[in-house]
């Protein structure tokens, strides 16, 4: 029998974007916009993505990595306040192993630069998974792409 465990942690990432909250929120809520910045495995072979952005809606992401393993993310949206807040839960599975389950709150506040976004993730790390630093790094890489997307939109 496999030993099961769960440990808990959280992290917060704050970012300022050069666009109003409505533009940043749109980048989270529109299927094409979201996929353009949130896909953290651009070297993947095959990928699937779908999103039903509404309270109780689901987001599905599945990708086959270069080593042949699959990575799957399943999300459920719990709370959506346009231009202000998104709350969702998701789990991360590689192959057949569930690595974590998370609750995420993303808030958008007007700022002098445009929008101050606060991303708070509370994680349950499962069965010995401990690589939170990799999760933070991947999340920040996505937010770097989001910033470029918003800068390009502001220039247009």
> What form results from the Cα inertia axes?
globular
For the biggest sheet, the summary is: 7 strands, antiparallel
CATH class of the domain at 6-38 and 83-155: Alpha Beta
CATH topology of the domain at 6-38 and 83-155, by name, is Alpha-D-Glucose-1,6-Bisphosphate, Chain A, domain 4
Query: What is the N-to-C order of secondary-structure elements (H for helix, E for strand)?
Result: EHHEEEEEEH
Q: What is the helix tally?
A: 3
Radius of gyration over C-alpha positions, nearest whole angstrom: 16 Å
Low-confidence stretches: none
CATH homologous superfamily name of the domain at 6-38 and 83-155?
A: START domain
Number of strands: 7
Helix coverage percent = 25-40%
* % residues in beta strands: over 45%
Structural class: alpha+beta
**Residue-averaged pLDDT:** 91
Query: Would you identify the CATH architecture of the domain at 6-38 and 83-155?
Result: 2-Layer Sandwich
Distance between the ends: 58 Å
In which order are the strands of the major sheet placed?
1-7-6-5-4-3-2
